[in-house]
Amino acid sequence: MTELKGVTAAAGAPAAAVAxxxxxxxxxxxxxxxxxxxxxLLGPAxxxxxxxxxxxxxxxxxxxxxxxxxxxPLSDFTGLHNYxxxxxxxxxxxxxxxxxxxxxxxxxxxxxxxxxxxLLLNRRMRGGSFLRMAVFAPYVVSQATTAVLWLLLLQxxxxxxxxxxxxxxxxxxxxxxxxPTIVLYTMFVVLTWQFxxxxxxxxxxxxxxxxxxxxxxxxxxxxxxxxxxxxxTLPLLGPTVRIWIFLSMIGSxxxxxxxxxxxxxGPANASSTMVTYMIFFGFHSLExxxxxxxxxxxxxxxxxxxFLYQRFVLRRDTDGALTRAxx
Amino acid sequence: MLAxxxxxxxxxxxxxRQRRLRPSVPLSYLVALVIVAITLVxxxxxxxxxxxxxxQLNVAPTGLPHxxxxxxxxxxLTSATFWQNLGNSALISIVVTALAVGLGAMASxxxxxYKFPGREAWYxxxxxxxxFPANVASLPVYFLDKQIHLLDSWLGVxxxxxxxxxxxxxxxxxxxxxxxxxxxEDAAVVDGATRLTFFLKILIPLxxxxxxxxxxxxxxxxxxxxLLPLLVFxxxxxxxxxxxxxxxxxxxxxxxxxxxxxTALSMLPALAFFVxxxxxxxxxxxxxxxxxxx
Amino acid sequence: MRxxxxxxxxxxxxxxxxxxxxxxxxxxxxxSGGNSASGKVTLTWWSNANANxxxxxxxxxxxxxxxxxxxxxxxxxxxxxxQYDAKIQVALQGNNAPDIFFQRGGGxxxxxxxxxxxxxxxxxxxxxxxxLGSQAQAWQIGGAQYGVPYDxxxxxxxxxxxxxxxxxxxAPPATMPELESDVTKLKAANIVPIAVGxxxxxxxxxxxxxxxxxxxxxxxxxxxxxxxxxxxxxxxKAGTDLKSFMATNPFQPAFLNTPAQTGAGSxxxxxxxxxxxxxxQGDWDPSVFQALVPKSEWxxxxxxxxxxxxxxxxxxxxxxxxxxxxxxxxxxxxxAPEPACADFLQYLDSASAQKLVAGASLxxxxxxxxxxxxxxxxxxxxxxxxxxxxxxxxxxxAWPTNVGTALDAAVATFFAKPTTTSTQSIVxxxxxxxxxx
Lengths: 327, 294, 437
Fold this sequence. Notes:
C: alpha/beta, two-stranded antiparallel ribbon, 45% helix
């Protein structure tokens, strides 16, 4: 108990008043009662979490060692063969690459757009709250609905094509979902449409936590609006940006719904992602051992990427709950 | 750590002195107009498209309804499918939210205001869960459901979704609960309250903003989930709304106008919820940033 | 708020508890359930017949069966064809399969039988199944009848006589060079020559399958199915044939994301509405057409619709009249109430029921109803079956499911990038998947 005390006390750091529960309370309860209370409080969450988050990964790691169609007993033990097959499969590698491309494009395209819109919304302008709602609306619609919506819009000769022709961009009309070299970027545009609002809201919250006095002081010192934005606002937005990158990365790694409904990962796997790969080659072709191995590999990849980001980037400025947890 | 609370509670900063009108202002409005057009027109197109017939849609994909047809919406609203999907989604999302927030709050209480060996380790067990994308775990969860006979059962979707909502719930709630001054708890104890009554009567009301944040996050995530329901459910009467939309699209795609109408209707609950609870949702997401920021 | 310093040992404790939890979590459990019936029974039936005319036929048949067997009622669940396979798979694995369910036969059925959830119907059907002729045997595994077909399928080209005439084509092509020159003529007349539903992958595989049927001898094909391999050289030659056919660019724009049977924009929808001149599809295509275009349009179209078999490939050593096909049927799950389930399958194959199936532009499984085939184009299909000595089951269904999926995916990749994909890739994908048996 005592050795932990220092830790807990330090947790209250900046606000001295926020000291942890003082010892009297603790002393009053006998340890046994505390154990019972802890079991009651912590037990249900732990059981749920262990059963449905940790246990499935174990099951998959085990199934991955077998050649198994999902019917009948697990009898054909093949060791790490499935894991090797997944890693050797060029389709798996290109699926992983697609996830990374989506993550990278999010960083270089979605992020600047989100920052720009957030800066725009941060100004007081007429209809600002309507604009905020409009930008955010696509985010609350499910990805499945978004997929069906854009599938309708992107039909050959459909709304998007007709609209482009109407504004004189007819020459740029493409086979949006059928051209293997374009389809991934089509997916990215739809993803951007759906998720830009999320970034904007997050960044806007970050912007609003920057004291207005700082900007005003700079303005009095004769700094232009652009200079103030560049020198003061953006650097102070750093932590929010890094959180956004983290969430965007996790999102990019698990893209499924849009791709599955719009293209099934095709044509020729040109829009496949790690999760569509797992579902297609593990679930649909009844190679459950193989699919399990793919799931475990996906899990490791996601975990390692997220962990590294936590460890080396997020931790710098947000030494909060998350980072401490995974240090 | 109080940032979480602040972000949720803080009203918009009072308007400061009027800015000088810069030449860029008209440009801002133009940009804003373009943004609104890009985000809203696709949705409006589908909603309006639901008032046309398939023939109209085939002849002129971009036209306006002429005449307006109510039949598509009417037949969907009077058929069981849409309401079943909606009901299933609501049931699952509510149970997920209740479980995640309820169990998450209990666990956060234990992890924030009790002192016991290995506390940080237990916290870590939950916190690393944030690094497991739920879609990546879908196939493993499917195998588990198969083992414990939860396939095609709403529990087979709700329990895993609640479990996957726990990490973010605990990560947001724990610092919030820890920030409540110890003096409050001491005072409660002096008044004869047990720790559990302190939890229920004092801590929970104090943590309400953060609870709303996590509730909104859990609800929206569950409401929009597609992959796990796709794997788990086989009986169409068990489908959730996202699954229902995709199924309707592929089953009745020759009836394009109905697909438009069904898609439009499936957006409406989420959009209505958003308009009604806009401040909560936005506050929730901002709170997420605040909380993670520490 | 800045965080606490967590000493390393806590990290160690943390890791240890995660490990302990994982180990504790890694136990497993399992048991099985079932259901029973007594007196009045309700048969749950999952089928891919989700649109008229076949949906209407099944509904009529359920109604009339219920009228004569009041103790049997039905819950009919239509499931879109492309979603069906995954759904039934999940149900069989979850031990909650419906009583009656749509079955594709072949390797697809053989894979499912391994679940132990499919009933051996032999005791119930052996007395009458002979009426269906030799094809009923294709639904047996080791002498046990695991499914009962209700229709027969043959793949060939459905074409629009009106569009052919417009392009100056007088007779359907009999050889590949003729087909290729017809493609050129149709293009010159500004008509999409061939529609294909590549998004769904399996329609692409028809082309590869047919080239394999033309290139391989019957004995080679039979051995390839039995041994799950495509290592005979004729399978590689089929890839080369496909490549040279693809070079004529015969398909509609954006065919790679065109579905086969869903919606007016699907390949079937394009032929039905006269936006494309032909399509290589199963004989069921006219029944799909009817669901995709308004009834008024369809009536006038039936006379414009024609059928021709896959053209001969000059110099190919295989059988030039052999067909690609299969059949559709139903299986009963182990928990299905008997004799109701098997008895209903027999009813579906009765001459009167089969006439309704034939009336839905499908080829009946029971030869007794062949006379009811009304569509003139369907008569050409029947003639082709009579003239042919051999029908190869679709390769993606003849082989086990994972091999079939690999074949479809490989052919789809080939369709997407015909110039850069090696013609060997299809054979390689099949043999790779076959090692995962």
